[in-house]
Amino acid sequence: MPAPMLEILPDKPALVERGLTLVVETIRSTVANQGYCTLALAGGSTPKPLYSGLAKQDLPWEKIYVFWGDERYVPVNHPDSNAGMAKAAWLDRVPIPLDHILITPTLEGDPSASASQYETMVRAIFGRLQGISPDEVPEFDLILLGMGDDGHTASLFPHTEALTVSDRLVTVGNKGSDPRITFTVPLINRSRRVIFLVAGADKQTALAQVFAAEADDLAFPSRLVRPHGALKWLLDQSAVGDLNLPQPLSQPEETI
Known about the structure:
By secondary structure, the chain is an alpha/beta fold. The protein has helices at residues 12-34, 48-54, 82-89, 111-130, 185-189, 204-210, 237-240; strands at residues 5-9, 37-41, 64-68, 70-72, 142-145, 170-175, 178-183, 193-198, 230-236. It has a six-stranded parallel sheet with strand order 1-9-8-5-2-3.
């Protein structure tokens, strides 16, 4: 498992710009190498301007497949919908084929059934693209993640059942009584590339634990993200503060 790479950017706009550069480079190089690119998006406020930036790029839209690493259990037109945000900022503004946008189902009234349905959708696409068998874990080209001030990522919250699910690709993540649909740890860790986008001073306590030599993985779920491919953390200066992060920083010009 490769060591994580870190970059500290001066502020959130610089972080977004760096993230945009990495995503565009990843899409272009992956399409050039294999003919398509599979991408799982993060929700929250930090990646929204990145998605707006992607809408202005000249990319091989017909070769891109878009998924979501997690979703709130609300309709797409709800203001809290991760898919709705990405569609408004990016996907509705570019000529990407509609059947390449794999929106998480949230209208079943049963989060467990919706999670199973999304897993079926994921397996169907990867079965066609990669020829994987039903018992294999798909390999995403890129998964974007954020991190909450409690150390959660996707909808993998501290000390919840979703953290230990190992026999499914998609499961129900619970934030209190609020059900969400989320990728499982094994699916995230099968990715060829994972990029964390983390901004804000409220993330310092969690970051200290995530990068500590010893800490409770179930208390700070971002520690569980250990992909077999490249792992990049993009942090703004306010998120880092005066933390003494143990890993060496990658140079800003380095790509994944």
